[in-house]
Amino acid sequence: MTINQVDKGEVVVVIRAQDVLVGVRTLEQLGIHSFAGSRESIDGDPFVSLASLAPGITFELDERALALRLTAQPELLDSVVRNLASGRPDVEFRRDTSAFANYAINLRGASSYDVFTDLGFSTHGAFLGTTVSAVSDRQLARGLTSATFDQRQDLRRIVLGDAFANGGLLGGGMLLGGVSVSKEYSVDPYFVRYPTFNLSGAITTPSIAEIYVNDRLVGTEQLAPGQFALSQLPITTGRNDARVVIRDAFGGVRELSASYYLTTTVLARGLQEYQYGLGIERTGFGVDSWSYGRPAFIARHRVGLTDAVTVGGRFEATGKLASGGPTLNVRTSFGEFQASTAISGANGAGTRFGSAAAAGYTYSGHRFSAGGSARLMTPAYATTNLGAADDKTKVDSAAFVSVSMGPRGSLTLQAHDANMYLTPDTTRTSLTSSTRLNGRTDMSITASIERGSAGSVWEGFAGVSIRVGAKTLASVSLQRIDGARQAVTEVQRWLPVGTGWGYRVHAENGDRNFTSGNLVYQGPYGRYEARRDITDGIASTTLSLNGGLVAMNGGVYATRAIQDSYALVRVPEVSGVRTYVSNQEVGRTNKEGNLLVPNLLSYYGNILNISDQDVPLDNSVAAVRKTIAPPYRGGALVVFPVQRVQNAQGMIQLEIDGQSIAPSFGQLTVTTTSGPVESPIGERGEFYLENLAPGPHAASVQYGDTSCAFTLTMPISAAPSVALGTLRCEAQR
Q1: Which residues pair with 518 in a beta bridge?
Q2: What is the radius of gyration, based on Cα positions, of the chain?
């Protein structure tokens, strides 16, 4: 049988005149479903008449070839779903216990300095951290102190201690000492929280599908007959155009096309996003270690009602304030909308009530983008960081239009108008052009005018940047800002991923003269910088150094400052092994075989590999590549086990009835704790064994019908090859 030209193997059928009966279970097992037809029982099994299934299923019987060829409509066949997302790699999640201490020291002249430390401890995925700073003219000050607990399966983060709570659109925010609970999608960076782009269709013959997104080929799939769905097409924010070119088995070509608008403000149906913060406001941050003020509660929550509509709300309160309101985000095929309203009540000399509203629209396309927003507030509207008596906007509006000038440039017009209650109104309009002159040179031009009560002020910028090699950028620009005219020249060399150096030279000439230069060296244990600034003839010098210490797996390691997560790579007792992160060399193992790798991405699959060419020939390494996901600001222990290769050679003699014979072409078996180790025996009794641990081992020889047992002792030796000499075994007939 074949179904839509796909060979399905042999089946049993019943032929009756112009009809063929096939077992119902047979058709279902071969991928045909949801059919009715005329049925009857044959030998206790239900059969269906193929003639009765027309026109959904038609057939051709070739009795000479004993072939039955069926053609079924796609809706009766199995559906095929292909996910085109890059997918989640095979990641090993680590939660090893570790601690780090970062330090940064800046020296300015003989008596001015500042020192900053960042301390962290991680165990089983929980992180406890704090920061401390000291400045030459101020006392020691504690920064943020908190304990973070990530629940990866539930995509939730709980913070006890200092955390910033944000009220969202029309809301306020503050640094709270207390507890914060939030939906944290970053703990699973491979989770897709936005509505994705899917294409579906149907085919009647085996086909090849070429998938294009924005005229770029993103994949090729082989599809069996039936309905198909291509899910999670790789698209970018804004409007996307996709088409699928289907080439069938007969050379026919047809095309499916669709458009989709992707926005990151709308959640997929059923997903949630939230943050709830309760605590006491942290005041005097950076100056006072233990200054706290009013208690506060700040909350925001959003839910994806559908793949196009997300609704939510916010609420915040202190002892004298309550403020909140609903939010709405809508995705359409021609852009995204967002809106929010709010009311507030604040106690002062009396209760003052206020209200606010905001709305916005954005469209991002291949050639054209545009958008606008407006925000209105009454005089008494208040949030946790905006008092009822503070100045605020009556109406704040903004709009932009951007046009692509082909693959090499774009032109953007922006306007912003702020109508305030207590301060003068301002209007700013700007026009920006960016152009790629060639593969290494870019040009940018901006002109703007700001109108206020004091009149109009013009500003402008024109600059050209040139990439020199892979690591250096040079730029020249002319600018007019706040009435001052400047010519600016800059040359910058970026730091490498591993060790190396970089620099930056910056010079401004015009109404103000300023020159700055710094030289930076990034070593395996820190970063060291010297900077010289000259402003209108007055010079200053700053010397800086920063680095870190990591305690892990019973050792302490000096390293560069820890920003996110890190790993301790171990190639036990093998020094000088080159180690790579995403194919970029980051260092070599020390004499104990350890290397601390800083600045990995938490929860992402970081690819670490070692060079097996650096492993001595008398050692073997089972794996040279691992994909590791460390916890938030925590460490991962990554071990590449190395096994020392040592062989043992000798000869076996059997003692039979007082005679010594060589058990030619027999077999020697040695029993070890990890299992039996075997060696064939040569013509003269030779044997060869690998990786036997020192000490006695039970051994046996099988020679035809004769067998014997004895004890084989492996001596302690550092040599790659050990000669055991002639071993004798007394056989029992």
Answers
A1: 504, 531
A2: 37
Cα–Cα separations (whole angstroms), residue 644 to 74, 256, 570, 622? 59, 59, 15, 11
* Token digits of residue 194: 């936005």
The answer to whether residues 534 and 77 touch, using CB atoms and an 8 Å cutoff, is no
HSE-up (13 A, CA, CB side) for residue 550: 34
CA distance 68 to 56: 16
Please tell me the predicted confidence (pLDDT) of residue 132.
94
| Calpha distance 323→338 (Å, rounded) | 19
29's enclosing H/E stretch is helix 24-29
User: Structure tokens of 673?
Assistant: 């704790």
The pLDDT score that the predictor gives to residue 155 is 95
Greatest Cα pair distance, the chain, in angstroms, is 121
> Measured between alpha carbons, how far is 676 from 668 in angstroms, rounded to an integer?
10
Q: Long-range contact list for 696-699, CB < 8 A, 24+ apart?
A: 697/670, 697/671, 697/672, 698/670, 698/671, 699/668, 699/669, 699/670, 699/671, 699/729
pLDDT attached to residue 395: 95
Contact between residue 452 and residue 472 where contact means Cβ atoms under 8 Å apart: no
How many whole angstroms separate alpha carbon 572 and alpha carbon 97?
A: 19
Give residue-wise pLDDT tens across range 237-282: 899 988 889 988 777 888 888 888 999 899 999 999 999 999 999 9
Quote the tokens at residue 286: 């950076």
In the chain, which stretches have pLDDT less than 70?
349, 732-733
Find the distance separating the first CA and the last CA of the chain, reported in whole Å.
63
* Predicted local distance difference test score (pLDDT) of residue 231: 83
